[in-house]
């Protein structure tokens, strides 16, 4: 896609996601925090993505995570915004607020500030939820990406999130 302003690896993977989900008859939604819409932007770079991509929720603040995706304030206060519990609740919220078959959530610390000893810059949590899936089967994981700048962390996170949207993708 020569006219894209996004990095080629991101657009190429987004195209694979759209094609694979179209073939599988699945629709998708994303709930993004630290990626700030990068995953949604990559998906919508692909012509015909509207057949597959249903909704993108950019919930950067904790208040919006609660208001738009119904993430409990107790979950955020107890586990933090960058936690498996919050990512899982975001993915579930994206499914509830859309008609998608599968949703992926991303929340993390892109930097340069905001990190801590327990959750340094580059810490990103992903969760995938499937409509009709067992709510006690949490598909989520925390990754520690190299702190190669804010843009680098966001790109690595977006690539990982797209991988999770491929049908039959392994757990994060």
From TrEMBL:
Residues 13-166 form the CinA C-terminal domain. Gene3D superfamilies: CinA-like. InterPro entries: CinA-like_C, CinA_C. This is Competence protein. SUPFAM superfamilies: CinA-like (SSF142433). It comes from the Bacteria. It comes from Sphingobium chungbukense.
